[in-house]
Amino acid sequence: MNILRLLCMLNSPFLNAMKHVKSDETQEALKATQDTFPGLTIPHTISSVWGSFVTNCITCYNPGLHITVDEQLFPSKTRCCFLQYIASKPDKFGIKFWVACDLKSKYICNVLPYLGKDPNRPSGERLSENVVMRLMEPFLDKGRNVTTDNFFTSLSLAQKLLRRKTTILGTVNKIRREIPQSARYKDRNEFTTQVFSTSAATLTAYAAKRKKTVYILSSMHSVVQTDNTTKRKPNTVTLYNTTKCGVDVMDQMVREYTVRRGTRRWPVAVFYNMIDMAALNAHVLYQACTGTQERRVDFLVELARELANSHMAGKKARKEQLPQTQPSTPSPGKRATSGQTQMQEQSCHCVMCSLLQIHMW
Q1: Which of 128, 139, 135, 131 shows the shortest CA–CA distance to 166?
Q2: Element (H, E) at 98
Q3: Other Cβ atoms closer than 10 A to 182
Q4: Phi, psi at residue 207, to the nearest 5°?
Q5: Residue 142: CA atoms inside 13 Å, Cβ hemisphere, count?
Q6: Which of 100-114, 199-213, 259-273 has the highest mean pLDDT?
Q7: Rounded Cα–Cα distance for residues 145 and 169 (Å)
Q8: Distance from C-alpha of 29 to C-alpha of 272, rounded to nearest angstrom
Q9: CB-based contacts of 53-60 (< 8 A; 24+ apart in sequence)
Q10: Residues 48, 309, 322, CA angle at the centre, nearest 5°?
Q11: Under a CB-based contact definition with an 8 Å cutoff, are residues 109 and 117 in contact?
Q12: Alpha-carbon torsion 205, 137, 12, 295, what sign?
């Protein structure tokens, strides 16, 4: 199987994809182009590749039962209006992406860039709910479960997902309105559990420490049970700890082998992240299609070799198609000037001569 075909969650060859990182167009050219990278007016080439990448991520893989939704901060200090600062991240500055990731394989199922306020979002809808519903739209009505953190989880989101045959499991911020007053005790006995139920979801209040209570909202658990260990953890907390790490592990894998380089142009930074994600997805698809377990570093080395060979073959083919032109020589009746002679001498130098001159200098 050709690894090059698996790479690329892009519909075009690598050479065409490289053309999409250009961002030196003038403001007049940007205004003339009405194509958007969801929410911004940018060159058509950027958004077309991004759209192809996301479309192929969605259609090329069938995720499992559990999908994790979280944020990814791609490290960058590019000049753009949607650069984010998150103090809790290892790299404080970067471009934020909302990612839906398969828990088992760490395959990137869907991804959205965060570009600030979205004018297309309904005024009465929370940003967190809008993000989850957009990411999960291709995977709804299949009986899956989505795991989220306290930024996304809410009772209204659980109700929306439940109507689409999808459950939710996630932590809830203690300031949410759906948390009853009787569950907001600050001083609880250690390792105690309190359960609150509605027709749509179950809220678990678990005291991991004496003055620290964790709130878990679940629409997939109608009954909450505790284990027989010393900490007496509820099954909702145990399952959440198992399913919450999909996007975080994916981000670590992408950072381990990355093509990222320093740049001040945000389309280039987005392209770097796109290539890293495509390479990770290609490795998952390669293992799923061939049934073999191959180290990711070996797969990436072979992938880079095939990309380089394809690039050199295309370059050689284009060079052979160029017309063969003979170097211009002065006519017999005319004498070449000193400038022309110097130019001819410079043009006939080979690479070894140039290196020799540099060494002698």
Answers
A1: 139
A2: strand 93-102
A3: 9
A4: -90, 95
A5: 14
A6: 100-114
A7: 7
A8: 24
A9: 53/9, 53/10, 53/274, 53/277, 53/278, 54/110, 54/111, 56/8, 56/9, 56/10, 56/11, 57/9, 57/108, 57/109, 57/110, 57/111, 57/277, 57/281, 58/109, 58/110, 58/138, 60/9, 60/281, 60/285
A10: 80
A11: no
A12: positive
Residues in Cβ contact with 275 at an 8 Å cutoff, skipping those fewer than 6 apart: 259
Q: What is the pLDDT of residue 19?
A: 52
Phi, psi of 95 (to 5 degrees): -100, 130
Rounded Cα gap, residues 348 and 55, in angstroms: 50
Residues linked to residue 106 through DSSP beta bridges, in sequence order: none
pTM, entire model? 0.77
Rounded Cα distance between 147 and 168, Å, is 6
Q: What gap in Å lies between CA 132 and CA 70, rounded to an integer?
A: 9
**Distance between CA atoms of residues 98 and 96, nearest Å:** 7
Cβ–Cβ under 8 Å, residues 107 and 277 = no
Contact 241, 271 (CB under 8 A): no
**Per-domain boundaries in the chain:** 3-310
pLDDT over 70 for what percent of the chain? 77
**Rg, C-alpha atoms of the chain:** 28
SS3 178: coil
CB atoms within 10 A of CB 82: 15
Reading the block at residue 349, the tokens are 């130098």
Residue 62 buriedness (CB in 10 A; 0-12 / 13-18 / 19+): exposed
Q: How confident is the model at residue 199 (pLDDT cuts 50, 70, 90)?
A: confident
